[in-house]
């Protein structure tokens, strides 16, 4: 809220349907962007056939900041298959300074809208998005 950026009502509605895998929101992921430096809106959606790699491509595609919510399926250390919702804030070092400031300052607004997502990851370069070395170990701590 410090930046004056608000979250579009459709983001909250979509999140509720995404959690329950209802209708058009039976998805693997959703990415979000700040539109016109005023409001957080849905940017892209990835169907269930998409992978974590597809999510990473979409969230990093234009060298600008983005937020993302991904439903990660993985196997726990004791062999159970499970999934967790993970919020990722992509704020690359190469993004414009103004964009980085707006996204950093507005992150709490979207996190409060995505109520119930317990895993939050901040990524500033591609190594911090690496599934095996970075993301999976963090997610497994919550399994």
Automatic annotation (TrEMBL):
<dbReference type="InterPro" id="IPR002108">
    <property type="entry name" value="ADF-H"/>
</dbReference>
<feature type="domain" description="ADF-H">
    <location>
        <begin position="2"/>
        <end position="139"/>
    </location>
</feature>
<dbReference type="Pfam" id="PF00241">
    <property type="entry name" value="Cofilin_ADF"/>
</dbReference>
<dbReference type="InterPro" id="IPR017904">
    <property type="entry name" value="ADF/Cofilin"/>
</dbReference>
<comment type="similarity">
    <text>Belongs to the actin-binding proteins ADF family.</text>
</comment>
<dbReference type="InterPro" id="IPR029006">
    <property type="entry name" value="ADF-H/Gelsolin-like_dom_sf"/>
</dbReference>
<dbReference type="GO" id="GO:0003779">
    <property type="term" value="F:actin binding"/>
</dbReference>
<protein>
    <recommendedName>
        <fullName>ADF-H domain-containing protein</fullName>
    </recommendedName>
</protein>
<keyword id="KW-0009">Actin-binding</keyword>
<dbReference type="GO" id="GO:0015629">
    <property type="term" value="C:actin cytoskeleton"/>
</dbReference>
<dbReference type="GO" id="GO:0030042">
    <property type="term" value="P:actin filament depolymerization"/>
</dbReference>
């Amino acid at each position: 809220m410090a930046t004056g950026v608000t979250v579009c009502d459709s983001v909250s509605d979509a999140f509720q349907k995404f959690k329950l895998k209802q209708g058009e929101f039976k998805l693997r992921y959703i990415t979000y962007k700040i539109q016109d430096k005023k409001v957080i809106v849905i940017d892209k959606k990835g169907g269930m056939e998409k992978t974590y790699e597809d999510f990473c491509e979409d969230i990093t595609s234009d060298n600008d900041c983005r937020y993302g919510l991904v439903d990660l399926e993985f196997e726990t250390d004791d062999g159970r298959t499970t999934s967790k919702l993970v919020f990722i804030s992509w704020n690359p070092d190469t993004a414009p300074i103004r964009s980085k400031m707006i996204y950093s300052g507005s992150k709490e607004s979207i996190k409060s809208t995505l109520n119930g997502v317990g895993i939050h990851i901040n990524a500033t370069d591609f190594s911090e998005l690496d599934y095996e070395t970075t993301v999976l170990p963090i997610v497994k701590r919550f399994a």
